[in-house]
From TrEMBL, chain B:
Keywords: ATP-binding, Ligase, Nucleotide-binding. The keyword ATP-binding applies. InterPro entries: Acyl-CoA_Synth/Transferase, ATP-grasp, ATP_grasp_subdomain_1. It comes from Desulfurococcus amylolyticus (strain DSM 18924 / JCM 16383 / VKM B-2413 / 1221n) (Desulfurococcus kamchatkensis). It comes from the Archaea. Pfam families: ATP-grasp_5. The keyword Nucleus does not apply. Gene3D superfamilies: ATP-grasp fold, A domain, ATP-grasp fold, B domain. Residues 24-60 form the ATP-grasp domain. Signal peptide: none annotated. One of its GO terms (molecular function) is ATP binding. This is AcdB acetate--coA ligase (ADP-forming), beta chain.
Amino acid sequence: MLDSFFNPRSVAIVGATPKEGKVGRVILENFIKKYKGRIYPVNPGYNEIMGLKCYRSVSELPETPDLAIIVVPAPSVPEVLRELGEKGCKAVIIISGGFKETGTPEGERLEHEIKELAVKYGIRIIGPNCIGIFDNWSGVDTFFLPEEKMKRPPKGYVAFISQSGAFASALMDWMAYNNIGVSRAISYGNKIDVDDIDLLEYLAGDDKTKVILVYLEGLKNARGRMFIETARRVSMVKPVLVFKAGKTSRGSLAAASHTAALAGNYSLYRSAFKQAGVIEVESFDEMMDAVRILLDQPLMNGNRVYVVTDAGGVGVMLTDALTVQGFELPRTPPDLKEELRKILPPHCIVENPIDLTGDTDDERYIKVLEKVLPRSDVDAVVVVALPQVPGIKGGLADYLIEAKNKYMKPVIVISIGGEEAIKLARKLQENGVTVFESPERAAKALKVLYTYSRIKSNIQG
Amino acid sequence: MSPRDILAAALKEKRFKLLEHEAFQIIKYYGIPSPEVVVVKSPAEAVELADKIGYPIALKIVSPDITHKSDVGGVKLGLKSREEVGKAVEEMLRTVSLKAPNARLVGVLMYNMAPQGLEVIVGGVRDGIFGPVIMFGLGGIFVEVLKDVSFRIAPITRNDALGMLNEIKSSKILEGYRGQPPVDKEAIADIIVKTARLMEENPEIESIDLNPVMAYPKGAIAVDARIILKQG
């Protein structure tokens, strides 16, 4: 149903312009650069823009465009929409602002008018007052921030839905910088029609999307239950992470009952997320860490975590952090202890966290991990590899990359430090081994992975 | 009368807070355990029913015009005999008509007082975005001061309801502490699920408070029910 927005065969850009710095220009440039379908600029002032034939009006277009993008000033939007309706266009992104968000009667009236037109012609609308869609696979890109100001992330498998255009842009830039691949991003502005629920539904069935991120300020009235039902279905297929903004409530006015007084806005959202099997993240860092671990790591069968470290102190920090997140760090069972004793020098500690100490080399890690990873009573392994120790040369990284696929259980790495640590992290991450800079972040991310594993196996927690 | 009739009658009279016995009738219809209540009009009627209801007996004035019942002498608790009940009803009717001369009096609500248990609260409210939402918490300071409550959005399953019990910070109290026995979680969960159904099936209801619900090692009973209707 929403496929015309993401995979259109033809696109009309109403309000396209050759003028530098204008929204209509940036969007047209985006399409010319990446989009493979037919592009129709519409603007009565030009016969040609950037080498493309320009049409004076929608009615003059040689075909019905699958998708139309409107960037003309708000007062002209209803007329354009009517023409698109007459032409038979069913998917429209309205970038233009100047509607309800202005708080003026005029803005309100215009928004009402476009809503009615949409219903009359059966047009689905994203926006108005939005930055629209960035689709890395089809080349649809209405994000009107020029590439030199906002880098586009590589093609990949993270989709996000954002109520805020600014947040979406910042996230895009950040993901580009961190080399995290994006499938599709949508910012829907005033959401007079297409909303989070429609988009979740679409992304659930999208084979290019493996993790869905949602930045949410608030749902539309009476859509709460639908959100829960949809998100619950989607969560069974792929993880949904949500960042909820606007957590503090103004307090209920003259609440008539205890329950009404206590039912603050955010507490209801939290319950809704829980019921929907949606995972809430509370900061930008947490969101990114969660995305990385969900993209790269297999799910967990249980919550028993083993730590293999070259630094006793970090082992202790990690033990604390993992325990706070509710993980179990089992004592090393006797049979494993015995095996480890045989292969380790006497000064190493075989109790979990297993401490290989500062004189370790790659080989020692590999020998121990070969004993730990295959065990069925181990649900995840955290490897602390402080690369400052002289014995770590690169063999460990190669081994970890291989081991992750071999044993099909999460193996994550903590690497703290400067240049060497970053080099190690980059190599591992490029090959699908998740690396964290701190025990706390690693533990929190692992918790997300565990929570999603439980949601997926449908255990209520 | 069915809940539909009760709600229709109240709305017709523009009463947006149900009278206590109406609220009890509605929760009873949904199978939520509550005391048997009767509304009596005279001391004689009260005396006649007292033995059947059993002691101790509580009395509350029923009037759409009185909010703070105890301020006008409209509450009497712990009555232990026919004589006490008869005298108390007589006195109540007299005092209330003196202190609130313009109030319409429906009668006196009479019921058997449930023994003290662990006081918990089950509530429901209709939210613009989520629709019926159900709340659970422990009574007293836990709700008033610590706001230690949990919510679920209807419809809710029994598992959801049990989740609500375990989610509050003070959930250990439900397991029993300082020699108190654990309370019947299943019975509370049952009330939660039924309250959700009640909210779902009666869109006229804006909010409901069952406060307190007395929870025991076996069973739980809503000893007070407050139902507010949507205006307009």
